[in-house]
């Protein structure tokens, strides 16, 4: 948004008492009646904010100075609060004062450091949305099943945002009587066991299901449960171990399925893939197929995003046909991959291409010059030869990628630091029309697109960035 339009929007919002924003580095805090507040501040200032009795929505954008030991007692004064977002705050313990907010509908503690959710969470009877993704919570308390109005329950643990190892993404242990949450639409990531599998059989209202720790013995009950969810649009299934075959061959996918992630070893591409006529997003992670999966995927009519993570052991990926509507493609963690070939006319609408953690790959895909609508190329932890073929004036691949508006190379380290280099700065890109990319696709699948308001009524030089995130 243009700065002038932003200031105008903020001014009107404040005048109409719709919302206010505050950055402690840019002046005094807003006064008067405030119903919705977005704040960027340190802990010392936040603890002085009291008496906002009419506040309905509070969003905290934490600064590096935010005290991780802050007790959040100031929340006691927000008795009418319906939306609370503390995403990314350095919170190590679940703030006890949250459970006193009886009117709370929306609570997000995503990317915080909490390890446990208290039993008293059951006091938030009106809660409809709970997000504790990317935390260290291993198990949810039995009090969670008291939240009968809950519609979105999202929880998982991320040990490494690079997702370079099978165990980097983990689910959460859920209590018994989960099926009593009969208003639940989004559920995950739940760790599978015998009673959880049986509980979700009766949860036919689900729109999204993320489940991990799936074993071969779960196949019959799990497949039965999924095929009896007629509203299911998003499905994530992860095996208990990287050497365990993901038991999905007997599955009959729901007709509305739009986004599918299979995370685990596959013997072959299931026959039911040909019935996925509405699928717009597909991820095959750690499938380790011994044959080429592309012929089974190229004809999917509505596929817009495809992510292949260690999907097969083939040394060559050959995109020969199809992928007519594909707009985003990611290829990662192929340890044996030596070359990628793209035939002319294949994926004509591709806009973003990510290639990473393929150590034996020494060049950009052959045929990339034919991808005339490609706007962004991301190269992550590839051999030095790849960048040389682009950067050097006599580089072999330089003419083939000159039409791409943005080419970025990222080098990561085991400590979480990563460097970013703009390779497209070495030549003048050809003018092109703007398009849209994975942001548009991923937001459709993102439960946070159920907006919070619903609940409240480049330089060319190298940059070193202190963050483990690579989204």
TrEMBL record:
Residues 438-471 are annotated as: Disordered. PANTHER family: LEUCINE-RICH REPEAT-CONTAINING PROTEIN 57 (PTHR47186), OS02G0478300 PROTEIN (PTHR47186:SF57). It comes from Turnera subulata. The keyword Repeat applies. Residues 446-464 have a biased composition (Basic and acidic residues). This is Disease resistance R13L4/SHOC-2-like LRR domain-containing protein. Keywords: Repeat. Residues 54-356 form the Disease resistance R13L4/SHOC-2-like LRR domain.
């Amino acid at each position: 948004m243009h700065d002038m339009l932003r200031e105008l929007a903020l001014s009107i919002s404040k005048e109409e008492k719709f919302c206010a924003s505050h950055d402690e580095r840019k002046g005094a805090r807003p006064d008067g009646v405030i119903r919705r507040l977005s704040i960027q501040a340190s802990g010392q200032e936040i603890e002085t904010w009291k008496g906002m009795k009419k506040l309905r929505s509070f969003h905290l954008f934490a600064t590096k100075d935010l005290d991780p030991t802050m007790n959040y007692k100031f929340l006691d004064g927000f008795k009418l609060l319906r939306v609370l977002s503390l995403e990314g705050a350095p919170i190590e313990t679940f703030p006890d004062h949250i459970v006193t907010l009886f009117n709370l509908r929306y609570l997000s503690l995503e990317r915080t450091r909490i390890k446990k959710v208290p039993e008293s969470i059951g006091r938030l009877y009106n809660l409809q949305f709970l997000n504790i993704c990317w935390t260290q919570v291993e198990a949810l308390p039995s009090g969670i099943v008291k939240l009968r109005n809950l519609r979105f329950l999202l929880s998982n643990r991320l040990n490494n945002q690079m997702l370079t190892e099978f165990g980097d993404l983990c689910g959460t242990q859920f209590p018994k009587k989960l099926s009593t949450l009969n208003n639940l639409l989004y559920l995950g990531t739940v760790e599978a066991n015998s009673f959880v599998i049986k509980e979700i059989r009766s949860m036919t209202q689900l729109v999204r299901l993320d489940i991990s720790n799936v074993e071969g013995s779960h196949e019959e009950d799990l497949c039965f449960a999924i095929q009896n969810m007629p509203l299911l649009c998003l499905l994530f299934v992860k095996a208990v171990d990287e050497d365990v075959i993901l038991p999905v061959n007997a599955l009959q996918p729901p007709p509305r399925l739009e986004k599918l992630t299979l995370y685990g070893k596959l013997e072959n591409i299931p026959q039911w893939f040909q019935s996925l006529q509405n699928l717009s997003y597909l991820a095959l992670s750690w499938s380790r197929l011994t044959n080429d999966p592309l012929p089974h995927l190229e004809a999917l009519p509505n596929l817009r995003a495809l992510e292949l993570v260690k999907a097969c052991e083939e040394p060559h990926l050959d995109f020969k046909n199809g992928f007519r509507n594909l707009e985003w493609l990611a290829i990662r963690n192929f340890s044996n991959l030596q070359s990628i070939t793209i035939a002319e006319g294949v994926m004509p609408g591709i806009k973003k291409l990510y290639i990473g953690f393929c150590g034996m790959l020494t060049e950009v895909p052959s045929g990339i010059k034919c991808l005339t609508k490609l706007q962004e190329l991301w190269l992550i932890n590839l051999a030095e030869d790849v960048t040389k073929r682009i950067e050097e004036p006599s580089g072999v691949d330089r003419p083939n990628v000159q039409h791409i508006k943005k080419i970025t190379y990222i080098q990561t380290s085991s400590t979480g630091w990563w460097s970013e280099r703009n390779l497209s700065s070495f030549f003048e890109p050809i003018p092109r029309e703007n398009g849209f990319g994975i942001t548009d696709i991923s937001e459709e699948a993102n439960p946070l697109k159920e907006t919070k308001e619903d609940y409240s009524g480049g330089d060319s030089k190298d940059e070193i960035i202190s963050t483990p995130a690579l989204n």
